[in-house]
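$ ./design --mode recover --in tokens.txt
reading tokens...
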């Protein structure tokens, strides 16, 4: 919120204020991840994922989301939680749209595996 307050003069009013604030928060989050070198693109990182053992319906969505890599969790949350399109997420996060779509597809597949849904 402090970053949004400091940049309030940059708000043009052509979109929802809440969306503008979320965009600032998402960019700051990614900048922090990149600085700590925890953010890896799909091209650089090997696929090292082991699904959780089948625990039935006891798993909830929050627990499954926590197990996703940060980039996938952010993209899935922005699309399905905040209602952004792939193009809007790509623009907000300064990522190629294809990368965002890959993060979403892989994240949703992992959620399906963890939650035991077809």
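writing sequence...
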């Amino acid at each position: 919120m402090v970053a949004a307050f400091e940049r309030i003069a940059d708000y043009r009013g052509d979109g929802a204020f809440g969306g503008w604030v979320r965009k600032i928060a998402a960019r700051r989050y990614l900048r922090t991840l990149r600085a700590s070198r925890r953010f890896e693109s799909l091209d650089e990182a090997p696929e090292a994922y082991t699904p959780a053992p089948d625990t039935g319906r006891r798993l909830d969505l929050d627990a499954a989301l926590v197990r996703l890599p940060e980039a996938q969790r952010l993209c899935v949350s922005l699309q399905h939680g905040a209602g952004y399109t792939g193009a809007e997420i790509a623009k907000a996060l300064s990522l190629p749209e294809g990368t965002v779509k890959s993060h979403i597809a892989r994240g949703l597949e992992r959620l399906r595996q963890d939650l035991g849904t077809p």
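exit 0
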